[in-house]
Structures are given as structure tokens and as C-alpha cells.
Amino acid sequence: MDKDYYRILGVERKATAAEIKRVYRKLARKFHPDLNPGDKTAEAKFKEIQEAYSVLSDPKKKSQYDQFGFIGDQPPPGAGQRTYSPGFEGFDFSDSGSSSFADFFESLFGRGAHAAQAGPERGEDLHYTMKIGFEEAISGLQTRIQLTRLVSCPACQGSGHLHSTGKGRCPTCQGSGRAHLQRGSMKFATTCPACQGTGVSRGEDCRDCRGQGVAQKTGLINVKIPAGVDAGSRVRVPGRGNVGRNGGPPGDLYISIEVNPHPHFRREGANILLKVPISVPEATLGAQIEVPTLQGRTKIKIPPGTKSGQKFRLKEMGVTVAGGRTPGDEFVEVAIVPPAAHDQKVRELMKQLAKLSTENPRDKMGMH
To answer: What angle is formed at CA 240 by the lines to CA 49 and CA 324, rounded to 5 degrees?
Structure first.
């Protein structure tokens, strides 16, 4: 092989696409020229990494590279020759039209005899984590966030090269859009990899984006968080991911929601849970008490003989979840708070109450 792309990225030949991508991103960040200003070695390494990834991330290029050890229609000088099955000696597939042999070699070495350029490629999705308040999650909000994403390079409009220098005839195919490959006794033609079959020179790589066609941009974008989201919800913002390639659509932005806790309310789906303290007289004699809700304060009736832990339902006083129509409920759980034990008058009254009360609340548990 002219270049060992697996060695350049430091991955095994059996590495998955995800592993190759992860290693590439790590190396690209390490050797990026913007992070190593003036370091020619880092710049050269960055270009080498880019070249290796452009091959190993493309299934067709990777297939050709794994089988033949090079990419394109012309093997590098000194590249090893493959031994082919007998019966092909002297064949020229350049003018084979739609023969199965021509189709076979086109699938290995090009994108098809009539392909003009790589197809549109959708941009990558981006992920962002946002922490919001309890009330904001329920009512929704509009805000702005700072986001760094890939956009089309403004210098070359995303082409990766300077158009002004790309109007001449392609020097590789001399303007024909076709390239010929000689492998042993076999000769066949395929799409020119230098111009992608256009016959026009690509021109110089854009100096701003180094031929990548994309640039990083950091800025504020408006986002809308719908009412009723909860912790763990994901909000999709269409078209706010990285820019697509070759005219492909941009990716999306996905916002993962984290919700700050509330000092009193707790949420379970569409329902709101609230614990409210009540006094011994309120629990014994009954009372009407005021409790908070998401819509303001309201009154509930505590019946005589209410026990600690008893729950009262406030219908449709909960949350309307995102995409839902009917809100959930609020459940108020009461907790009986005993009077202050240090108050002597209270203690005397409790002693009198103990004499009057002959019922043991633990009798039902079989305790004696």
C-alpha cells in the first residue's frame, strides 16, 4: 500500500465506522492547525489524518482500499499487483458499455460511469443540555442559547475550493471526465476522481477551510421550549445542526432538558404532589385550609378524623404535558404536626386528652 491509513489513524483493520470516527475526531482536535499555530508538523499530520478519514469513512473508497491498497483509477508507483483469475488477459473494459464487467469495476473504483459528483449528504445532529426552572418546564419558555456548529465556509460557499481557479480543463482526465486504470493485462475506464466526471479542474483548495467546505461558527440562536416538558425530555430544533455536504440538508439540534427541583412541589408525569402540614385540632375536628397550586392558592376541606399521610385530589390542577390536552391532577398529602412539647399548658391539655382517650392505635397491629 502507498499509505497505511489504518496506521495513520491508529485503528485496526476490523475497526467499526463508529470507532474510526471517534478516533478521527480525537486526532483532528489534537493536530488542528488553529490549535497549533505555526506548527508545520501538526499541520502536515492534520492533512494526513483528514486524508485517511476521507477514505476509511467512505464505504466505497474503503472497499477499494482494502482490496487493492489505493484509491482512484491510477495505482501509485510501485503498488503491488493482484493476481486475477485466468481468462481476462488482454481484455479492455474501457468501451464495454453496460457489461457486467464494467459495472463491477465501476462499483469498486468510482461512483458510476455517469456520476457527476458525490451525492447530497445530511449534516450531523448536535446535542445540547439545558437546565431550566420547575415553573419554566411547566409553562414553557423562549430563550437564546450559544451554540458552536459547522456552517458553509463563507469564503468558498461550501465548495472547498476557489471557483475562480477551477474553470480550466481537468489535468487528470484532460477534460474528458473519464480516467483509465491498467491492472496487469486488464484495462478499464471509470469516472475521473479528480473532477468527479465534470472534466473541469477543481482548482485550489480554499485557504480558509483547507478544502473542507465548512467553518466553525459560534453564535446565539433562538429556541422555544414547549410547555409541559419534564426532566429527560428532548426538544428538537430542525435545521440547527451542522451544515450538509454537496447540497444536503443540515442536521438538527436536540436539546436535553434538566429541571431544577421545586421547594414544595414534586412532579410525577402530569401530576403534582404536595405535602402540607396540619395541626392536631385540624385533623381531629376538621378544617378548611389553604394550599398552593400551579394556578395559585385554593382551599380544601379536611374532614374530622383525618389521618397523617391521607391524600386529597385536586382534579385537573396538575400539568398539561407537551402534546397533551387535559392537565393532570394535584395530590395533597397531609402530615399531622404535634404541638410544641415544651409549652406547659399544652402538656397539661395533652395529659387530659390521654385520660379521655382509651383507644390504643396499635391494637390493630396485634401489639400488647
So the answer is: 135
230 domain residue, yes or no: no
In a domain, 216, yes or no: no
Task: Please name which of 29, 36, 20, 50 lies closest in space to residue 210, comparing C-alpha atoms.
Answer: 50
Confidence of residue 260 (pLDDT cuts 50, 70, 90): very high
CA-based nearest residue to 56, from 45, 68, 64, 47: 64
Degrees, nearest 5: CA angle 119-125-130? 165
The answer to whether residue 120 is domain-embedded is no
Q: What is the CATH number of the domain that holds 297?
A: 2.60.260.20
Instruction: Identify the H or E element spanning 102.
Output: helix 100-109
Q: Give the pLDDT confidence of 68-119 residue by residue, as tens digits.
A: 777 765 555 544 443 333 334 334 444 444 344 444 444 444 444 333 445 6
Neighbouring C-alpha atoms within 13 Å toward the C-beta of 168: 8
Q: Is residue 150 part of a domain?
A: no
Closest residue by Cα to residue 13 from 44, 42, 47, 56: 56
Q: Name the DSSP class of 131.
A: E
What would the grid cell of residue 77 be? Answer: 508507483
Cell of 260: 431544577
Q: Please state, in angstroms and as integers, the Cα–Cα distance from residue 176 to each residue in 25, 58, 164, 173, 289, following that order.
A: 37, 25, 21, 6, 88
- Among residues 7, 1, 100, 99, which one has the least CA distance to residue 52? 7
CA distances from 350 to 147, 212, 286, 302, 343 (A): 64, 83, 18, 22, 11
Taken as a whole, the chain contains a residue count of: 368
> By the 8 A CB rule, do 235 and 226 touch?
yes
Instruction: Show the CA angle centred on residue 44, arms to residues 38 and 50, nearest 5°.
Output: 120
Identify the sign of the CA torsion 17, 19, 20, 22.
positive
Its pTM stands at 0.56
